[in-house]
User: Fold this.
Amino acid sequence: MTSLKLSVLDQSPVHDQSPESSGLFTTIELAKQCDQSGYHRYWVAEHHDTPGYASPCPEMMVSNVAHATRRIRVGSGGVMLPHYSAFKVAETFKMLEAFHPGRIDLGVGRAPGGNPVSSEAISAPRQTIPAQYYPQQTRDLIGFLHNNLPPEHPYHNATVVPRDVGAPGVWMLGSSDGSAEVAGELGAGFVLALFIGTHDRPPEIIARYKNAFKSNDNFDSPRAMVAVAAICADTAEEARWLASSHTYWKVQAFRHGLRDPLFPPEVVMDKIKQLSPSDQAYYQETMNTMILGTPAQCQEKLETVANTYDVEEVMIVNVTHSFKPRLNSYKKLAEQCGL
Assistant:
């Protein structure tokens, strides 16, 4: 049995070329299994107008997942804060905490989470809050949740209700070192997203977060996680086969700005041959950033990642064309690790 905590980040993918809304219901089904299997947290993502991903509203998914499960912590991974009022996000998550005391997490990020037109439409007729205000927004969010903004703050007297419940912990998500020290200074948790991109993310990022950490009402000590893409199957070859769908999706999305549906692996094998040499290289580079293999191989790799980054919890992203292999991957890993 491993002492490593394993958690789930669910992007609510649309499986098996099914109708778009089906991804919302497979999220609920997967969450129920992960709750029973012993995973520690279940976080849901925010994607706007993104073919292949079903959920633009993590707060709605948090509510439904928490109602459908019994034990597992449930949260956002994350709310894209520059789109929204920090006060309104605080109200929403206070309500969630009231319904599910002690089980709610609030992860926030600053990415647009969708194509430019849709990102503008979210805030219209206002403009999206510029990214440079993201640290202050997060500071305000923590203050609103605890109703303890400093006296000089213009909204010091604005009260988030209900006041008689606790506040969910705020975590900042980052795919590089940009948010690490900010998260520490704000007393937020920090999640390093190793599944986004292929750039180098040295362990020093987590160390800088911990060194910068200042305790407050949010957390009294540093809380750090890494999030990785991982698929386990009966063989390493099968795991790589299953991973091909999302890997090809990433090539098209990150290299060409195209948001395709998730193609089945047998279709992807033909499409890979049609890619340019540089795209094929990016495909292999992306595949190599994933943790793929048998349950035992995946456990060993996950423990290595945790030791390298000096974290006690790893969050797993798993996107496959069909739902059943994804369900089985989480189940096999939980059994292997004795969750």
Remarks:
- Residues 5-235+292-337 form a domain with the TIM Barrel fold (CATH 3.20.20.30).
